[in-house]
Structure formats: structure tokens, C-alpha cells
Design brief:
By secondary structure, the protein is α+β, with helices and mostly antiparallel strands. It contains 7 helices and 13 strands. Strand 5 and strand 6 form a beta hairpin. Helix 2 crosses helix 3, helix 3 crosses helix 6 and helix 4 crosses helix 5.
């Protein structure tokens, strides 16, 4: 009798467990991150040849190596995508093949293999322009010199949808310039730091990351309370306190000529960002609200941090000692 009772208890437990398994799987499938793989930074051959002629080959290689690492770090920090190590593609495929055959829930390594999956999107970053020039001005009367270093970097990220093999349109691209000066130093001691080059690369990686996320997974409204909206993106994806955002409802429309699915966006309001955390932010609706609901797309249209970097290259240098540019003695 006791054996029958125990058997009934076990069967009841197993039935309860099996009934809950599909529900758990369904819940997991609703909030999963897209998996991406990031290729090595590619540098155009013509750019490599130019850098060699100008003796900037070392700097260009340094930029390429640093940009690859910084881009991975920037995308990882946002927590929007699950990143697969592309350099271990062969190992991952072996683990996936193993998982199909050896499914042992007590084997931790097998459990990890079951979680491995191929990338839905592949990011292919490329440097398409790089300049590093230095100008030196001598002041022999006071045995001083000033050095001005001009940096320019342009990069693009092509994104491939691995489920279709299609290259997605509107590849994110960024162009940045930076001017570094060391003024009125002793002759022979006026130099610039490589830290400035790394800072430029880091900024490039952050902007490429932000644009890539905005392209694939734009910010959205998660909740609305009166005039306050809660947004699922924060400072890690480039949203800043004080930014003005536009809010859109979207509609998928098929192009009859190409069969491409286009996303039509209709503005339903604007809002000012009032609070920003790492992964989310809050904004107050300004003006008319013509249909802001949960799920609306949010895009920054006016940022508080959008200086015109290119203007630095076009400015005419002021003479040392002028009222707007006093002398600095080192």
C-alpha cells in the first residue's frame, strides 16, 4: 500500500513538472537577446598603402587593434545583444553537434553546449579613412615651439542577417576628428600623447555601438504614467539627461517592387529626458500627445552632447599671445 502511495506521488510530481516545462520555455523565448558575432576590423588596402607612405603604419595598426577590442566592450556593456566569440566558430560548431547527440542534464559541460547558438547577426567593422598629421611652429626668439596634431578617423559597420544572408541597408558609419596641441614648450620637448589617439578610438567604438543598436534594436517606450514615459535605453546607448526625443508608432509595409519590408514611422509626440540610468531613462512628454503607447520607438533628435567635431579642422589658428589664445608656458 505504501509503495502504491509513493508511486502515485512520484507520478503526480512528474506530471506537474512536465506541464510546467513548456510554459518555462515559452517565457524564455519571449525576452531573449539577439546573438551577434563581431568580425575583425578590416582596413582598406589603399588606406594601408597611404599610411605606409606617410609613416603612419604603426598608428593605423594600433587604431585597428584597439577599435576591435573597444567595439566588443561597448556592445557588451549595453547588454542589448548576446555576443558570440567569432574566433571560436569551429569550437562552437563542434559543441552544437555534440549537444544534438549527448544530452545529459547532469553533465554541466553538455548543458553549456546546449546553450551555444550561432549568431543571428554578424557585425563587419571596417576603417575607411585615417589621418594623423602634425604641424610644428618655432619661436626661435624665446627658444619655444608649439605642436598641433590633427587626427581623423572614419569607420563603418556592415551588418549581415545570417538567417537570410542579406546585408542590411543603412550601415552605421561615424566620422570623428580631434585636434591636440602642445603650446610654447621647450624646443625638442613638444610632443603629443598616444592617449589622445586611444580616446578618439574609444569614442568611435561607443558611437558605432550606439548607431548599430539604434539600427537593429531602437529604444522603446516601456511604460507611461501621466506625462512621464519610461524608456528601455540609458546612458550606455547614448541617451543623456536633457536630450529631446521623438516618439513614433511603426508599421511594416512591403515594397511591391523589391519585396523588402520597410518600417514606416509616424511621429506621435516629443519628450525631454529628465533622468538617465545605465540601462533605462525617463522623459516628460512636451506638446501634443497624438498616440504615445507602450512599444513606441524612441529616437534622440537633439542631444545635449553633440559638438561639431569637424569644425575643429576648419578653424584658422589664432596667433599665440592673442586675447582669445593667451600664451602657455611649459
Amino acid at each position: 500500500m505504501k509503495a502504491k502511495i509513493m508511486m502515485g506521488f512520484i507520478l503526480s510530481f512528474l506530471c506537474s513538472f512536465l506541464l510546467h516545462v513548456p510554459f518555462a520555455n515559452a517565457q524564455l523565448s519571449q525576452g531573449e537577446k539577439d546573438t551577434i558575432s563581431i568580425g575583425d576590423i578590416q582596413v582598406q588596402q589603399s588606406l594601408q598603402d597611404k599610411a605606409k607612405e606617410q609613416n603612419n603604419e604603426i598608428e593605423l595598426n594600433h587604431v585597428a587593434e584597439s577599435l576591435g577590442a573597444q567595439l566588443i566592450n561597448s556592445l557588451s556593456t549595453t547588454n542589448v545583444f548576446q555576443i558570440v566569440e567569432s574566433k571560436r566558430k569551429g569550437d562552437i560548431e563542434l559543441e552544437q553537434a555534440y549537444a544534438k547527440v549527448a544530452v545529459n542534464p547532469n553533465d554541466k559541460n553538455a548543458a553549456k553546449a546546449l546553450n551555444m547558438s550561432g549568431a543571428k547577426f554578424v557585425f563587419l567593422p571596417q576603417i575607411d579613412a585615417f589621418e594623423d598629421t602634425t604641424e610644428t611652429m618655432e619661436y626661435s626668439a624665446v627658444n619655444k615651439q608649439s605642436v598641433k596634431r590633427k587626427l581623423f578617423l572614419s569607420a563603418i559597420v556592415q551588418i549581415v542577417d545570417t538567417t537570410t544572408g542579406e546585408l542590411l541597408p543603412g550601415a552605421p558609419s561615424v566620422q570623428l576628428s580631434k585636434v591636440v596641441e602642445n603650446e610654447m614648450a621647450q624646443v625638442g620637448s613638444a610632443t603629443t600623447s598616444e592617449k589622445d589617439l586611444i580616446e578618439l578610438v574609444k569614442e568611435m567604438a561607443n558611437k558605432l555601438s550606439q548607431k548599430s543598436i539604434a539600427s537593429l534594436r531602437p529604444a522603446k517606450v516601456l511604460d507611461i504614467t501621466d506625462k512621464e514615459i519610461f524608456i528601455n535605453r540609458g546612458s550606455e546607448t547614448g541617451i543623456n539627461k536633457g536630450d529631446l526625443v521623438e516618439i513614433y508608432v511603426t508599421q511594416d509595409i512591403k515594397d511591391p517592387d523589391t519585396g523588402t519590408i520597410l518600417k514606416k514611422e509616424v511621429s506621435v509626440g516629443q519628450a525631454n529626458v529628465t533622468r538617465v540610468d545605465l540601462g533605462d531613462s525617463y522623459a516628460i512628454i512636451t506638446g501634443d500627445n497624438t498616440g504615445i503607447v507602450k512599444g513606441c520607438v524612441v529616437r534622440v533628435i537633439k542631444s545635449v552632447q553633440s559638438p561639431n567635431d569637424n569644425a575643429q579642422l576648419d578653424e584658422k589658428p589664432l596667433p599665440p599671445g592673442s586675447d582669445e589664445k593667451p600664451l602657455k608656458w611649459n
